[in-house]
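Figure 6 in text form: structure in, sequence out.
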């Protein structure tokens, strides 16, 4: 029975993963933000997922294939069509399910859905290093690597499935089949340095809607590139007629009223690259956000 429970949990996770993948383009194209939960987890809102089951027909009316009918018989749901006013209803509304995923899982789904290629790093600091990680759970291993929480959880599921668990006397006794161990494997990791240069026009023509698009786009850019590079930094440059480097908080909250000279931002980026991010050592990604208005015809 415990194995059946594990199988059902695995199937449900696959269903959730597929649902997230279906909704991913909507999150990205409409700028719908995904909630952050700490450093490594995100919370994703999804429509309620119902398990398949047989239900009674709520209408009780005729359908195609139910015998002879008279001319003019209406096939389909009964009731008046169209929208209209009415009293308060007593039916439940649509429920939203929030699921948690790691940033790494989200980046993997995004790469699969959009067909993004793996990035080939460049620069002298691009080397392959091998490190060991405890990345999974197995049913065999030394006692020093026993995962006690997983072991007792498995024992509890087995006792509940067999009917031997007594809530009045909650004693959990693991047996050999319940024991779970951390598994170890070598992981090849690319040690490459990369930097994202975010450049944004903060002139008076950039409104709240444009700022929200920038915030959403930067989240997805960050998510994907962090899955490709272990060492990733970000620098933020804002500009109207003049440009300057700022921190992340200031980048998303600043709004000016001046004009737009794009070349001022390029000069700041060129200085940052020359002083801190030489192309021989860094993989450089520059993203510019602007509404397209530019005062200088020479830019």
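Output sequence:
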């Amino acid at each position: 029975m415990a194995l059946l429970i594990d199988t059902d949990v695995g199937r449900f996770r696959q269903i959730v993963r597929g649902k997230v993948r279906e909704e991913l383009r909507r999150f990205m194209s409409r700028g719908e933000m995904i909630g952050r939960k700490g450093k490594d987890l995100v919370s994703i809102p999804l429509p309620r997922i119902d398990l398949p089951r047989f239900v009674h027909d709520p209408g009780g009316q005729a359908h195609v294939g139910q015998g002879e009918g008279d001319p003019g018989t209406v096939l389909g749901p009964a009731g008046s069509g169209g929208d209209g006013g009415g009293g308060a209803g007593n039916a439940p509304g649509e429920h939203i399910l929030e699921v948690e995923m790691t940033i790494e899982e989200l980046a993997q789904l995004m790469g699969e859905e959009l067909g993004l290629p793996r990035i080939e790093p460049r620069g002298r600091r691009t080397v392959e290093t091998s490190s060991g990680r405890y990345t999974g759970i197995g049913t065999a291993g030394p006692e020093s690597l026993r995962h006690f929480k997983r072991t007792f959880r498995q024992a509890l599921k087995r006792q509940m499935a067999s009917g031997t668990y007594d809530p009045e006397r909650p004693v959990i006794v693991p047996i050999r089949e319940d024991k779970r161990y951390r598994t170890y494997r070598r992981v090849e990791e690319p040690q490459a340095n990369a930097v994202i240069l975010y450049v944004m026009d903060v002139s008076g023509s950039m409104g709240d809607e444009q700022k929200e698009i920038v915030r959403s786009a930067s989240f997805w850019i960050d998510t994907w590139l962090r899955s490709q590079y272990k060492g990733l930094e970000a620098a933020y440059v804002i500009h109207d007629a003049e440009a300057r480097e700022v921190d992340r908080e200031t980048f998303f909250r600043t709004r000016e009223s001046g004009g737009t000279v794009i070349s001022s931002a390029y000069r700041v980026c060129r200085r940052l690259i020359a002083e801190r991010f030489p192309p021989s050592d860094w993989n450089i990604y520059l993203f510019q956000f602007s509404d397209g208005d530019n005062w200088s015809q020479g830019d």
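Caption detail: The chain has three domains: 2-52+96-114, 128-189, 191-289.
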